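Revision sheet: structure tokens.
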Amino acid sequence: MTTTVTTYIERLQQAADKAQSAETTYRREAATRMAALERERAFAFRRMNLMRSVAEAAKPQMGDDSDPAERTGEEIAVACALALLRTRLGWSSESEARDAILTHFAPVVIALHRASDEAEMPGETSGIDDALERFEAWYEEAHGVSFWMLFENPMQDTPRVDF
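Predicted:
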């Protein structure tokens, strides 16, 4: 036979269990959201830092690219920017996968280079944005992860030596 007090305590236990469950669910959702925001922030800063460096490397050099038959300035800018990308990623050797990445990234550099040379539309970045979005989408489709994951810097294990 249950008494009124026993029933009351059981109700309090159920309420406590329900509150604990709600808190656990909220903490799990908050942790997932925080991780997503952290990843978005990291990728945004990686994007900004890389694109700042690439834009500097892709700036028009001495000479004029106005003649479509002579694109040497653009070719130099692309080569410089892709060399910078290789360096930033720590790539000292070539591979098919790396060549594909550089080939798909080249339109981003070209868009930056051409935008650097256009004084009539300051602030117009849609061509650059489109090129970068296409590259990021291609990379994610081809590799299953964001391009910006390449910039993860895991700490290497270092042997501990006692003297």
